[in-house]
Amino acid sequence: MSKKTKIFAPIAAAGLIILFAACTKNPEIAGGAPMIPDDGSALYSLLTKECDFSAVLTDDEIAGLLHMREEEKLARDIYLGFSKIYDVPVFSNIAASEEKHMAAVLFLIEGYGLTDPVAGKEVGEFTDAFQELYVDLLAKGILSLEQAYEVGVTIEEQDIEDLQKCIEETKVTNILNVYSNLLNASENHLKAFKKQF
């Protein structure tokens, strides 16, 4: 095994754990998901379970998935932009996490045969609903590092609020699994940004 392969394998495994989190059950919350660990310990069991995409989604559930896919992209793109301006690891680290969140939501979107709202869109490109918000938040954050941290807090607080709403609107297990894990991550991101002040 080459050195490059040895480095890549744990990263790929971590990504797969998040991606397949939708297929595990939560013993604590009816229909919800336990928090997936960052190591590869759960990888085998996750990969040997098949996701059930037989549920007929409501309009609210569909809208929630499409919204969260774009909201996770907004967070990633903003943090990528800030990571190029400010030499602090919090932005690049959380951007990498948001990339995994995008993949987890895309997994559901594709599983349910929905159209990805950000397919083919580059960094900084969104549907009309998010484009103006992206421009406004980026403009605020480039004024100073403190303002950038404030933008991070704003994004994560909105993400938490939207995820809580989406969780209330569904009883579909694999959707709840992903949302529960994203909510936990957003709460951690919020704490990380608040520590910077």
Structure in words:
The protein has 197 residues and is mainly α. It has one domain: Ferritin, core subunit, four-helix bundle (Ferritin, Up-down Bundle), CATH 1.20.1260. The protein has seven helices and no strands. Helix 3 packs antiparallel against helix 4. The longest helix has 27 residues, at 59-85. The N and C termini lie far apart (44 Å). The model is unreliable at 2-17 and 25-48 (pLDDT under 50).
Within the CATH hierarchy, at the fold level, what is the topology? Answer: Ferritin
What CATH architecture would you give?
A: Up-down Bundle
SSE pattern = HHHHHHH
Hey, roughly how much beta strand do the residues contain? under 5%
- Shape assignment: globular
> Residue ranges: pLDDT <50 for 5 or more in a row?
2-17, 25-48
Question: How many DSSP E strands?
Answer: 0
The CATH class assignment is Mainly Alpha
- Class from secondary-structure proportions: mainly alpha
Count of structural domains:
1
Could you tell me the radius of gyration in angstroms? 17 Å
Instruction: Note the main sheet.
Output: none
Mean pLDDT: 82
- Summarize the amount of helix as a percent range: 55-70%
Describe the structure concisely.
The protein has helices spanning 3-19, 43-47, 59-85, 89-111, 128-141, 145-168, 173-194. The protein is an all-alpha fold and 197 residues long.
Using brief descriptors, characterize the structure shown:
7 helices; 197 residues; globular
Secondary-structure map:
Layout: H1 3-19, H2 43-47, H3 59-85, H4 89-111, H5 128-141, H6 145-168, H7 173-194
